C-alpha cells in the first residue's frame, strides 16, 4: 500500500501523526515552520485518511504504527522525534510500545492514554455505523465548535473551514475502520512511567475531548515530562494557535541537544 506523505527540510527527523477525522494537512503550520529550521519533517496520511486508501473493516492502532515505521524505513530514518495529536497521540504511544528504541523524544497533544470504556466502545461502534450511513458532513457540522473553539470559528474562519473540509472529505470507510480499531486500543497508562525519552504533553485550555485534567494525568506519569497548556484553543491548538504551539515545540526540541 502506498502512503501519501509530506517530507520537508533536512536534519533530524520530526514525524507528525494527525488525528481523526483529519489528514496530514492539519500539520501545515508545523511542516513549514520546522522544515525551514533544521528539521526533516515527515507528515503522513494515515491509512483510510487523506490520500491513503482504506482497506478492511477495522484498523487497529498497531496497524497505523507499523505503517508509520514502515514508511520511515523506506525513507532511511531509524530514530525520530514523534508527535501525535488526539488519535495520533495514541498511535504515537503504540509506536513507543512496539518500537521504543526508535523514538528520540515524544510529543503528545490533546490525547488520552487510557483504554476505551465499555460505553466508549459502544459509542465508537455506533459512530462507525453512522458515518457509513450518513457520510462525514453531518458529523463535521456537529463537532466543528468542539474541534476548534467558537472564538476561533469567528476570528479565523479560514482555519475553521480547513478543519471542516478535512472532516467532511474523509473517507467514511477509513474513519469507520479506525473507530472500530480505536475502540479496542490497549491501556497505555502502565507504559507511561517506563518512558525514558524526553516527553512533552500539550493541550488546548478549551479542549472538551481531552481536557486539561487528562493532560495533567498523562504528564504526571511520564518521568520528567513537560506540560504546556495553549490558551484560546480547543482540540487543535496546532491550527488554532500555531505560533504558541510552535513556540512550545521549538523550546522542547531545542532542549534535546
Automatic annotation (TrEMBL):
Xref: SUPFAM superfamilies: alpha/beta-Hydrolases (SSF53474)
PANTHER family: AB HYDROLASE SUPERFAMILY PROTEIN YCLE (PTHR43798:SF31), MONOACYLGLYCEROL LIPASE (PTHR43798)
Domain of life: Bacteria
Record-annotated AB hydrolase-1 domain positions: 12-242
Transmembrane segments: none
Xref: Pfam families: Abhydrolase_1
Listed name of the protein: Pimeloyl-ACP methyl ester carboxylesterase
Keyword Hydrolase: yes
Keywords, comma-separated and alphabetical: Hydrolase
Listed Gene3D superfamilies: alpha/beta hydrolase
One MF term in the entry's GO annotations: hydrolase activity
GO CC annotations, alphabetized: membrane
